[in-house]
Amino acid sequence: MPTDGLTLDALTLTQGDFSLSADLTVPEGQTIAVMGPSGGGKSTLLSGIAGFLSPTSGRILWNGQDITPAAPAQRPVTMLFQEHNLFPHLTLAQNVGLALGPSLKHAASPKVADALSRVGLETLGPRRPAEVSGGQRSRAALARILLAGKPLVLMDEPFAALGPGLKQDMLALVDETLRAAGRTLLMVTHDPADARAIADQVIVVEESRALPPTPTAELLDNPPPGLASYLGTSARARSSS
Ligand SMILES: Nc1ncnc2c1ncn2[C@@H]1O[C@H](COP(=O)(O)OP(=O)(O)OP(=O)(O)O)[C@@H](O)[C@H]1O
């Protein structure tokens, strides 16, 4: 079994009477789209990897090291939710500075200025989240992830609330900045266009299983029956464009 990257070794995750199994490896540095029908277990998978949900069996390894017993903060993992988790009473610089520790003094660090400039927010550090646009809030959340320095980044439909143009811009920025930083990204999305835009491979989550990653074009050009019916005609329309 390869040891570089994320390995889910005979993993079972359980929520109520729902159970998800996974036995797969994600190579370090890759961008992976996580796709599948609603209720299939995509968020359950991310919660297990992040450590919010303890597995009922199996192990989670990062670069060969067993992280299954580690608390979320001790894992090499950071997670971005749709609402981005910015504190409304703090400035963008203070929010980004939290990646360096709980003191608000980190807002003045050159590292925060650098992270803000990498996402195009160099002048907006003093503003609060309510004083910037939705796209700019997404950028601030991405800056915090870049600064946090964790090698594995999880995103659960991160930009669903943005309009299509803005979403594309954010995906391009995520791709550019996380790849440059050598991060491994698992991103839940319902949109095959998102996967085609940035994902090297896709993990399909359906019928209580997370399947091993498959190269994006190969999978979306010829989806297995379960994924094809979930994607409907949209995947075919996009694959021919
Ligand atoms: N806290 C919980 N307790 C019991 N069952 C849960 C809990 N959270 C989720 N489930 C169930 O687990 C299954 C998988 O849910 P999950 O949220 O992982 O799916 P998903 O693929 O992310 O769906 P969606 O695309 O709709 O967000 C569902 O059947 C859901 O009802």
TrEMBL record:
Which Pfam families does the record cross-reference, listed alphabetically?
Answer: ABC_tran
Record-annotated ABC transporter domain positions: 1-232
An annotated Gene Ontology molecular function: ATP hydrolysis activity
Q: Does the keyword Transferase apply?
A: no
Q: What are the UniProt keywords, alphabetically? A: ATP-binding, Cell inner membrane, Cell membrane, Membrane, Nucleotide-binding, Translocase, Transport
Matching entries from InterPro entries are given as: AAA+_ATPase, ABC_SmlMolc_Importer, ABC_transporter-like_ATP-bd, ABC_transporter-like_CS, P-loop_NTPase
Record has Nucleotide-binding as a keyword? yes
Xref: SUPFAM superfamilies: P-loop containing nucleoside triphosphate hydrolases (SSF52540)
PANTHER family the record matches: SPERMIDINE/PUTRESCINE IMPORT ATP-BINDING PROTEIN POTA (PTHR42781), THIAMINE IMPORT ATP-BINDING PROTEIN THIQ (PTHR42781:SF1)
Instruction: Report what the protein is called.
Output: ATP-binding cassette domain-containing protein
Q: Which species is listed as the source?
A: Pseudoroseicyclus tamaricis
